[in-house]
Amino acid sequence: MIIEMANIRKSFGSNDVLKDVSFTLKGGEICALLGENGAGKSTLMNILGGVFPADSGQIYVDGKLVEFSTPAESQEAGIAFIHQELNLINDLPIYENMFLGRELKTKRGSLDLEKMYQETARMFQQMKVNLDPNTMVSNLDASYKQIVEICRAMMTKASIIIMDEPTSSLTDQEIGRVFTMMRTLKDHKVGIIFISHKLNEVMKICNRYVVLRDGNLVAEGAVGSVSTNDLARFMVGFDVRTESLLREKKIGAEILRVERLTGGHSFQNIQFSVKSGEIIGVTGLLGDGRSELFQAIFGANEVSSGKIFLNGKKVLIKSTTQAIKEGIAYVPRNRKENAIIKDMNIIENASIVTWSTFAKLGIIHVKKHVETFEKQKRALRLKMGKLTDSITSLSGGNQQKVVLAKWLAMDPKVLILDNPTQGVDVGAKEDIYDIILQLANRDIAIVVLSSEAAEIIRVCDRALVMYHGGIQGEVSGHAMNEQNIMNLATGGQLTYV
């Protein structure tokens, strides 16, 4: 199948979102669709997916002019859209999820569960997927949920699949699993549109790239002819910094120290300390235990044994409420599930941690909340409309800044950032790096948990590398490079003196 979108224009009110954009995809091709949040990527794909019409322009399928008024019409033409927020029901087995909305029935009108199971097993065999169709979706990790969505698309005879940020919340191992699946689709001559902010992944899996900026198509070509720096420059319109951001700064007294901290099978015998103004990174591979470790320090997970000290004083943290009172802030990974409340507006999300601080006799002092947030808004360079707009009206990067504002309002001593740039574009990522450095200059002790070694190297003074629940080693200075980090993360030892 060949998809051609010609001279597509789309406006929402006075906002011109797409300005004469043309896009082509052939079967058996994996094309990266790139751009900052607000560049027009989602709008272009929503037009192709039949979510809403273009103001002008044409869509051709194999040379034939088509019009998609609904998502169903797009699906009937062989186009499947796998959204960032997966449409699976956790309380149903895989095979029932595979037929949601198009269930097979017996002659008597009841669900033909046996046939749905058999069809699912046949598809898994064809796509080389090692899953039992009877498995409950709730028991799948994020990568297998993506794979189920891909197989469901294939069962609808999809020839083109749009994948919107499919790896934003996956570990390296899970990403590898999804990439294997994508290569299988490519071998079956399925065309894939890969929307992602992770440029290193684009280089690994894509053949072509198309870049949108401010609603215009600004660059396209073969992935093999460009570097990640080139793609980043196309996206933002200027050279993006890649050098280490560390500068000489004042490191103060020790703020947080843990001794022989153990939490079941997740982490064992952990010892480290962080000083005021210091940024330490914690990294590793799948199952290294870093998130569980710092969730325990924040009071969200249990500690089996060991000690935690704040400002030299031993503390026993049994809840997140107590951790907050002690001055520990935690920005969790997976912003959409764990950090924002979608049913609340911007100011409510930004102030929820400090409601008790700004309350008197159980009544929240809204004016103080607004004043505090306005200061954070300026400091974080937050782009937004009204305070009462939905949090989901913001781009991923600006949502992350609201989450940061929420925790900064409590004036923490220790700030733990778990994958702080997950799912944000390159421009917002640079903003967040700058914010981290500014916070360190305010004498906050900062811990950055990240799967990306390059991120750790750019912003951290030193890094702890975890392996199977323990700290395998520490690197800093010239020794803090990707080779040493990967060596430690896989159980190796450093060889330098």
Structural overview:
By secondary structure, the chain is of the alpha/beta class. It folds into two domains: 2-236, 3-Layer(aba) Sandwich (Rossmann fold), CATH 3.40.50.300; 254-489, 3-Layer(aba) Sandwich (Rossmann fold). The chain contains 17 helices and 22 strands. The strands form five sheets. It has a six-stranded mixed beta sheet with strand order 6-7-8-3-9-10, with helices on both faces. It has a six-stranded mixed beta sheet with strand order 16-19-20-13-21-22, sandwiched between helices. Strands 2-1-4-5 form a four-stranded antiparallel beta sheet, with helices on one face. Helix 5 runs parallel beside helix 6 (172-187).
State the main characteristics.
alpha/beta, six-stranded mixed sheet, Rossmann fold, 497 residues, 2 domains
Can you give me a brief rundown of this structure?
This protein is of the alpha/beta class and 497 residues long.
How many domains in all?
2
| Spatial strand sequence of the major β-sheet | 6-7-8-3-9-10
- pLDDT average, as an integer? 86
Distance between the termini: 58 Å
**Gyration radius over CA:** 24 Å
As residue ranges, the low-confidence spans are none
The beta-strand count equals 22
Topology, please?
Elements: E1 2-12, E2 15-26, E3 30-34, H1 41-48, E4 56-61, E5 64-66, H2 71-76, E6 79-82, H3 94-97, H4 113-126, H5 142-155, E7 160-164, H6 172-187, E8 191-195, H7 199-205, E9 208-213, E10 216-222, H8 228-236, E11 254-263, E12 267-275, E13 279-283, H9 290-297, E14 305-310, E15 313-315, H10 320-325, E16 328-331, H11 335-338, H12 346-351, E17 359-360, E18 363-364, H13 366-379, H14 396-408, E19 414-418, H15 426-441, E20 445-449, H16 453-459, E21 462-467, E22 470-476, H17 482-489
Helix pairs in contact: 5-6
